[in-house]
Design brief:
2 copies of one chain form a homodimer. Chain A is of the alpha+beta class. Helix content of chain A is about 30%, strand content about 25%. Chain A folds into 2 domains: about 150 residues, Nucleoside Triphosphate Pyrophosphohydrolase; about 70 residues, Orthogonal Bundle (Arc Repressor Mutant, subunit A), CATH 1.10.10.10. The first copy, chain A, binds a DNA duplex (27 and 27 nucleotides) through helix 4.
Chain lengths: ~230, ~230
DNA sequence: ACAAAAGTGTTTGGAATACACCCATGC
DNA sequence: GCATGGGTGTATTCCAAACACTTTTGT
């Protein structure tokens, strides 16, 4: 971190950065975390939080560190989205960035008070502002991967609290697949699948109160095994 | 490429490399291309072909260039597998590698005569030798992504000739999913899906001769649209 | 009163699964 | 003649899709 120190190599090397696509579902809308850039390039534009890789860390560790530094959220990234290397993606020079997807639960949406100039904000996935760098590319790929993950992994349950209602879950799926599902079929499908277990209704029974469910890990894997056979 | 020239940066940078997982299906087995390393580290061990990123190219372009240089195969990579950054993955120092998946057709399996010391060879995916570096990690992730691609994209048809038989296609699926499918159900599924069109039997009709099909792009997309609804 | 949100059940069609036999070829 | 590989059909089961009404709460 010494500004005077120079690093010298026999061959050209690119600068390596990481970016975080952080998801949060507030029970109503799926949202992504953006920060408003305080410096050039792209000053005042919105971007995914990220920064430069350091010498003693993997890309995954760098992503987690940068996220914590910039937003106070301390959560390991879930999966790689991809690595972006367009020659002109950063006007400062040749940088290559690996983007990660991080999933947070509603209870984890607390943003630390902005200590650096950067302003952080959640944006609904279907109402995103213009993004800096090639972050539109990252966004596109993130959305696609999210759909694949929703098909094949228990990712949805890492975006909701441990206890959730089916209408809530359906709103999450609608946001991810950009499609409105039939409420009755949606509920039937997931209840019959064995993926969800109803939670004993705490106390007062209001007739039409939403029923809470929790994710059933064992049920999920037997369900996936059945489903993941032929292509 | 001047050995004397030094590159100097204000901050530390990693060396960036690319690796290619090249697939070929010979009608019977799915195979991957490996080269035997001629130099340390991991001298004489098998590895995926790859090399260092250069200044004026994207990762995708570097992957294609390296593949051509090392094997004579000139084919653009199809998709990224991931970026691998373990601190100890290369004993020479800190390198980060992005791996790509490349699909070739049976007719494209000609390896150029080895002009560098490297020896290149196709290995059946289920009979791979020990690999150099962290290439076992790359292999694992490549196999997983291939399964996802087989579920959602026309990748299988980029691994077969334009005209193919259903038993051939079934062997390909068996290799990818490591599962034996029922021949009758497999055929029924794909014939009824509209993805495949039978090819007019050229001339002589032998009673039990295999029937040739070709991939039907339009049929594929209407099929996917139906299938890709709920999770 | 009315709109909004959540609960519930039935029917129908299509796809996945399971399963057996015939024909031709090569050894 | 036997093993191998390829073609074909039927019955069942399960899941997906379509579809309407009631209750409660809040305005």
């Amino acid at each position: 971190m010494d500004n005077k120190k120079k690093y010298e190599y026999d061959y050209w090397r690119p600068a390596m950065t990481v970016d975080n696509v952080v998801l949060n579902f507030d029970g109503n809308q799926l949202r992504m975390l953006l920060i408003r850039r305080g410096d050039e390039p792209f000053k005042d534009q919105w971007a995914f939080p990220g920064g430069f890789l350091e010498e003693n860390e993997t890309l995954e560790e760098a992503a987690q560190r940068e996220l914590k530094e910039e937003t106070g959220i301390n959560k390991a990234p879930f999966i790689q989205i991809g690595t972006f290397s367009r020659l002109d993606r950063d006007p400062r020079g040749r940088t290559i960035s690996t983007a990660f997807l991080t999933l947070t639960k509603p209870s984890e949406n607390i943003l630390k008070a902005q200590d650096d100039a950067a302003e952080a904000c959640w944006f609904p996935v279907h109402n995103m502002p213009a993004l800096a760098f090639d972050h539109e590319d990252i966004l596109r790929k993130a959305k696609f991967i999210l759909q694949v993950l929703f098909h094949t992994t228990p990712v949805p349950y890492q975006l909701m609290n441990n206890i959730f209602t089916l209408p809530e879950m359906q709103r999450l799926f609608s946001d991810v697949f950009e499609h409105e599902f039939d409420r009755r079929n949606f509920q039937k499908k997931f209840i019959s699948s064995g993926i969800l277990s109803p939670v004993a209704n705490d106390n007062k029974e209001r007739p039409n109160a939403p029923i809470y469910y929790r994710f059933n890990n064992g049920g999920f894997y037997t369900y996936q095994k059945k489903k993941f056979n032929i292509g």
